[in-house]
Amino acid sequence: MIKAAHVSYQIGNKSILQNVDFSLNENDFLLIFGPNGAGKSTILKLMAGILTTKQGGIFIGRKNILLCSKKELATHVAYLPQFDEFNLPMLVKDILLSGRYPYGSLFKKYSRRDYELFDKTVERFELADFVDRNMLTLSGGERKKVLLASAFIQDVPLILLDEPLNFLDPSSAIQVVKMLKEMHEQGKTILLVSHLIQYFFPIANKMLALKNGQTQYFGEKRFSASLFHDIYQVSVKRLMIDSKEIIYIHE
Q1: Helix extents (H) in the chain
Q2: How far apart, in whole angstroms, are the C-alpha atoms of residue 124 and residue 145?
Q3: Closest Cα to residue 76, out of 154, 128, 149?
Q4: Interval 15-73: pLDDT, tens
Q5: Three-state secondary structure of 23-77
Q6: What is 2-250's CATH superfamily?
Q7: Amino acid 191: pLDDT
Q8: Which burial class, exposed, middle or buried, applies to 191 when counting CB atoms under 10 A from its CB (0-12, 13-18, 19+)?
Q9: Phi and psi, residue 144, nearest 5°
Q10: If we measure between CA atoms, which residue out of 249, 222, 85 comes closest to residue 163?
């Protein structure tokens, strides 16, 4: 479905990514993890078309995304940045309806289908009390819910998320995790960056570990205490309780 082929990226003389190579199939859930500065956010921005590289390429199907217009790419990929990157003073309803932009034209009003999806999204994400509010007046958890809803209304197969649980209280974090799990179960392909592996490791089916811009592991999800220790320099344990996988940091 989407592939990073020998991707490298640098800023000036500083190397950010070095020969990163992986591919995802439809309905995969990829967890990307690694220490700060590992290149995690950079690979997301490359896949979203926000950054470009001359070394290697990102492909959707067999097409390099550099050959896609921004509007075409937006019919394939939704990108949700970190919480503190979103500071636009827009109304929630405008954020949601903007997700339908790739399917119309500059001079075309929103269609009946657009408004049907809008109503369905507002109901599903319980946003009726927020649609007329400015995004900057919402809490962190509320903003995350709106951004997830915007990806839902955009109706694309691939969703990219960068640290979606940043600044969230435990209740809001659990709610976001449940939403992502439901979206994955409904067929979405999810590529997610997070330090909080305890939340996402149990629901991912593939994982990519990065360190110093290089791939330490890519493949089917597997628990490896030595890999986590190499990445984070901490001891990570796993428990199985009533068929539920629990990952935790062991002091």
Answers
A1: 40-47, 70-73, 92-98, 112-124, 140-154, 170-185, 197-200, 225-232
A2: 11
A3: 154
A4: 999 999 999 999 999 999 999 989 999 999 999 999 998 899 999 988 999 999 888 89
A5: EECCCCEEEEECCCCCCHHHHHHHHCCCCCCCEEEEEECCEEHHHCCHHHHCCCE
A6: P-loop containing nucleotide triphosphate hydrolases (3.40.50.300)
A7: 96
A8: buried
A9: -60, -40
A10: 85
CB 79 within 8 A of CB 50: yes
- Name the pairing type of β-strands 189-193 and 29-33: parallel
Instruction: In whole angstroms, give the CA distance from residue 196 to residue 167.
Output: 12
Which structure tokens are listed for 183? 């979206």
DSSP class of 195: S
Query: 221 by DSSP, 3-state: which?
Result: coil
How do the residues of the chain divide into helix, strand and coil, expressed in percent and rounded to 5? 35, 30, 35
What's the full length of the chain, in residues?
A: 251
With tokens 């629990």, the residue in question is 246
In three-state secondary structure terms, 154 is helix
> Could you tell me the pTM of the whole model?
0.88
Q: What are the structure tokens assigned to 240, written together?
A: 């199985």
Structural domain spans, the chain: 2-250
